Fold this protein.
Amino acid sequence: QVQLEESGGGSVQTEGSLRLSCAASVPKNRVYCMGWFRQAPGKEREGVAIISTDSKPRYIDSVAGRFSISRDNAKHTASLQMNSLKPEDTAMYYCAAAPAYVCYSGSWTDGSRFEYWGQGTQVTVSS
């Protein structure tokens, strides 16, 4: 069983920065594809970024160049550094974990192949 807990959300103004962290409790010797997803009120959940077990990242176009995902396999953590934030980045952000192969396969942004989810942390960007 995998348990995920996010932290680091908050409120910032446009062009501000936030760093989200995800602490994972995982079975011994297991590693997972890790991802960050978000859901704004009235909108569908969307993938933001994922990172493979060997730290290869993938981003959606709207955050590429502004957000950076990273992980520490020894500490079982994943992070999302968010810079140049925009009001449209306002959403609940979720950390998620999937079998390792998911990070190398094509479709990931809908989150359907991610099996474990955190409770979420709110990010609000004001203009």
Remarks:
- DSSP finds no helices and eleven strands in the chain.
